Amino acid sequence: MISISLCMIVKNEENALDRCLSSVQKAVDQIIVVDTGSTDSTKQIARKFTRNIFDFEWIDDFAAARNFAFDQAEMDYILWLDADDILMEDDLAKLLVLKSTLDTEVDSVTMKYHLAFDAQGNVVSSLRRNRLVKRSNQFRWKGAVHEYLEVGGRILDSDIAVTHCGDDRDSDRNLNIYMKRQSAGESFSPRDIYYFANELKDHRFFEMAAVYYQRFLKEGMGWIEDNIAACGKLADCYHELGDTSMELASILRAFEYGPPRPDACCRMGYHFLQKNDYNASLYWYKQALEISVPEHSWGMQNLSCSTWLPHLQLCVCYDRLGLYDLAYRHNEAARQYQPDHPSVISNKAYLEDKLGLAQVSGAATVPST
């Protein structure tokens, strides 16, 4: 059985840290908590779980803080989490099994990262990250902001998931760091350019974000998943700016890097829906449902684009074409995922009236045609 050091960096996490550590403590042999300047009770909470609490002077560099935390680890493998992450009970059980069975030739274990959920608790946004790494390899973190763990060797893709429960309290932090670095004349890596553009977009600086997405794509040095995502985000910027021509060009640009993804198909579907070209819109929303994203894809996955959202939009298209039976069927398909969505509820009532649905044993039925 391997031993595991949990390494964390924290600041003012009194509302989250206990929940995080309680969810994972059974699976780890050492807990390292590096505090970067808390002014609340974070350290007191950490002391309930560990004596290994260290101070690190914040220098606007997440990689430096994480590397310092890794340097304190003593066990065979290092697991990293943020304070607003947890392991659900099923995932804790899977981690305990992995701990007792892991081949020590494995250098890194990836885990899914569930970032967002709908009202029914379904995962709607997810990606994959290296989470558990062999300490002796001395893998290091890179990047002051949106840092990543640079690993190599034998990598195992697990079915364990880490669940994010954050509320993005300091939403300006990363943008401010990038702006300070830019003002200081620092050179940005392709990854920096991409994530700086993301921060600008998230703060609704769409024109400036578009400039940086274009720069990122033009330099041609990005990871393929970031290239694909950048095209979609660039399209979103042009949509907000009212430039439909550049919006469409940006959507299509994603196809240079690989087969269409569900989110790109949904963007294409929406483009034609806005032009009242319902047959073209139908084609693209159907494609979104038919395309499958590999289970172990490292890119960000917006799962709504391959589940309920295309069905809801297909309902709209078929309604506009007067094909109410098909519209109803797709709304019902969307309702399997989103039973409380206002549009789904409204569509159901509207289409039942259109179709004159009869109630049989308490269930709505579509008349045979």
TrEMBL record:
It is an enzyme of class 2 (transferase). Keywords: Glycosyltransferase, Transferase. CDD domains: Beta4Glucosyltransferase (cd02511). GO terms for molecular function: glycosyltransferase activity. InterPro entries: Glyco_trans_2-like, Nucleotide-diphossugar_trans, TPR-like_helical_dom_sf, TPR_rpt. Its EC number is 2.4.-.-. It comes from the Bacteria. Residues 5-118 form the Glycosyltransferase 2-like domain. Gene3D superfamilies: Spore Coat Polysaccharide Biosynthesis Protein SpsA, Chain A, Tetratricopeptide repeat domain. The keyword Transferase applies. This is Glycosyltransferase family 2 protein. It comes from Paenibacillus chibensis.
